[in-house]
Amino acid sequence: MSKVAIIGYGNVGYHLAKRISSKRHEVTIFSRTQSEDFILSIDQLNPEAFDFIILSVPDGDVKSVSDSIATSEAVMLHTSGANPISDLSKHLKHGVMYPLQTFSRTKDIDFTAFPVFVEGSDEGEKDIFTFVRSFSNDVRLLTSANRSKLHLAAVFACNFSNHMFHLSEKLLADLDMTFKDIQPLVEETVRKAMELDPSASQTGPAMREDEETINSHLEMLKDEQLKNIYRLITESIQNSK
Amino acid sequence: MSKVAIIGYGNVGYHLAKRISSKRHEVTIFSRTQSEDFILSIDQLNPEAFDFIILSVPDGDVKSVSDSIATSEAVMLHTSGANPISDLSKHLKHGVMYPLQTFSRTKDIDFTAFPVFVEGSDEGEKDIFTFVRSFSNDVRLLTSANRSKLHLAAVFACNFSNHMFHLSEKLLADLDMTFKDIQPLVEETVRKAMELDPSASQTGPAMREDEETINSHLEMLKDEQLKNIYRLITESIQNSK
């Protein structure tokens, strides 16, 4: 049983607090906004009272929040994919636990179903590994440099694919259709990509070099930015063959 | 019970043949390559012997194959999202049935789980509707012009999102990781997009206007085309807010 402070109560903080406390750790939540009664203000944080302090604040605030906390025996952690471990180097024991998942307040998350990537300072790594193991069964070591690369890959697979969904949603609105209308198609696309690998499951006019359809699609797109996206991705699909 | 000729035995022809014959229609398969014993050569097609002739050939061949077939009482159909109904206008009764799904030879397809969009010539529409109803329970009328728009939306949602997966797969290879390693993240992204709509579920550095992470990602990308894709999609996400 560890005493854990979670700073920040956004989507990640919320789900971490729920999961970690369910594993019998003692969790206290701190926040700058202190939106609910059981959340303490970050001014009330006494680092000496904790074994682990987890920063689940926006990436841009990780270093400044870490620097604002007095040094102690506690292990200082952040959960960001993009920030280097060195953001926390003020603290002797420090490290990263990056859950490779996307979190929403309203959706339950199965913590046994995705990997958590960890990294620690010499003094902190063993404690971090043991701690993360207590609530995840897929814990993997990864350096900051490689974690940035993984985060970049995740941006393509998730944020950028979601934007393709969003652009599709806009085009469907013209037809009085919603994204739900193409749910079977999207889900089958993902199933295929998982079974065959995305490289092997690519289909569509770009892949078929179907210039006639490509040109008629470009004509339909009135927005210049959308045209550019269509052109560039089509070209990239053809270069990837 | 109808007599159905299917011309072309690619992924779509294969699954159509399976589904339509399971609904007690009499299906004969014709192909130019005639790769298996039960497949007849297209030269052997006698249009008079069929109620429906379905072209599941590449989009670019729809018109020429249709034009090469003698006129008859049979209803001529194609299954393409991109081709207009007029490609088949040589034949009195003609039309389109566009299944909004992606087909792979090796994966079973649940025909009750996606819509089929139909369109017919004055003389053919009623027959087509009744026929498609016999093997699909979600049949919707759609004009050629709107079907092209739907196909364009599907290209963004499926072909382009799959390419984002492919680019991610390439970046993961650098880390000795496969696309399977980020399966929980991709699946949760799609679940969120379906529950909340893609517009509401957009996350990531572009959405957060996190310039530091965006710049460090651009530095990591050595390939100019990949850099351009990253820049353009990031910009488009920010313009869509």
From TrEMBL, chains A, B:
Boundaries of every DUF2520 domain copy: 115-236
InterPro entries: 6-PGluconate_DH-like_C_sf, D-isomer_DH_CS1, DUF2520, NAD(P)-bd_dom_sf, P5C_Rdtase_cat_N, TM1727-like_C_sf
Pfam family, one: F420_oxidored
Coiled-coil residue spans: none
SUPFAM superfamilies: 6-phosphogluconate dehydrogenase C-terminal domain-like, NAD(P)-binding Rossmann-fold domains
Residue intervals of the Pyrroline-5-carboxylate reductase catalytic N-terminal domain: 3-69
Name of the molecule in the record: Predicted oxidoreductase, contains short-chain dehydrogenase (SDR) and DUF2520 domains
Native source organism of the sequence: Ekhidna lutea
